[in-house]
């Protein structure tokens, strides 16, 4: 029960982080947008967590706004050989990094990973292809 409560708090955090600009209006669960190799995905925040010691996970980078205001970038996506099925470790941009430094970033290769700090947040959410030209 404690893990489910912690994950729901994290999903709520992701909803706040993504803001109204980057959520999809359909459905009761948060649906943050995520860039992966400059391809836009939407995720569904689900009440599921995992022990990071039990298997691989993706690195997810959160900032104040990457390309088109999307606040999240994944290191890999469905179809990549190293994609682990939506198991995430969250990294947050460090305080003091200029807000507009990554305004055009849409790929991990666009980031200086030294500008991010690791968190203790691990969770599961799927990546679903986003149809259309950008966040709605």
Structure description:
The chain is an alpha/beta fold. It has one domain. The protein contains 1 helix and 7 strands; from the N terminus they run H-E-E-E-E-E-E-E. The chain has one helix spanning 2-18, and strands at 33-36, 39-43, 58-62, 72-74, 87-93, 116-124, 127-129. Strands 6-5-3-4-1-2-7 form a 7-stranded mixed β-sheet, with helices on one face. Strand 1 (33-36) and strand 2 (39-43) form a beta hairpin. It is globular, with a radius of gyration of 14 Å.
Percent helix? 10-25%
Low-confidence residue ranges: 1-26
CA-based gyration radius: 14 Å
Please state roughly what percent of the residues sit in beta strands, choosing from under 5%, 5-15%, 15-25%, 25-35%, 35-45% or over 45%: 25-35%
What structural category do the secondary elements indicate?
Answer: alpha/beta
Q: What number of structural domains do the residues give?
A: 1
H/E series: HEEEEEEE
Q: Count the helices. How many?
A: 1
Instruction: Quote the distance from N terminus to C terminus.
Output: 34 Å
Taken from the alpha-carbon principal axes, the silhouette is globular
Overall strand count: 7
How would you state the average pLDDT, rounded?
77
Biggest sheet features: 7 strands, mixed
Q: Strand order of the main beta sheet, please?
A: 6-5-3-4-1-2-7
In short:
The chain has 136 residues and is of the alpha/beta class.
């Amino acid at each position: 029960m404690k893990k489910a409560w912690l994950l729901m708090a994290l999903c709520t955090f992701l909803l706040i982080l993504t803001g109204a600009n980057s959520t999809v209006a359909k459905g009761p669960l948060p649906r943050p947008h995520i860039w992966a190799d400059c391809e836009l995905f939407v995720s569904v925040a689900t009440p599921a967590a995992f022990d990071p010691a039990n298997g691989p996970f993706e690195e997810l980078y959160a900032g104040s706004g990457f390309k088109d205001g999307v606040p999240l970038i994944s290191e890999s996506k469905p179809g990549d050989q190293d994609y682990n099925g939506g198991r995430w470790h969250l990294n947050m941009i460090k305080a003091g990094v200029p807000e507009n430094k990554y305004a055009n970033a849409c790929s991990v290769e666009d980031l200086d990973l030294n500008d991010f700090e690791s968190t203790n947040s691990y969770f599961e959410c799927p990546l679903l292809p986003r149809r259309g030209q950008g966040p709605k």
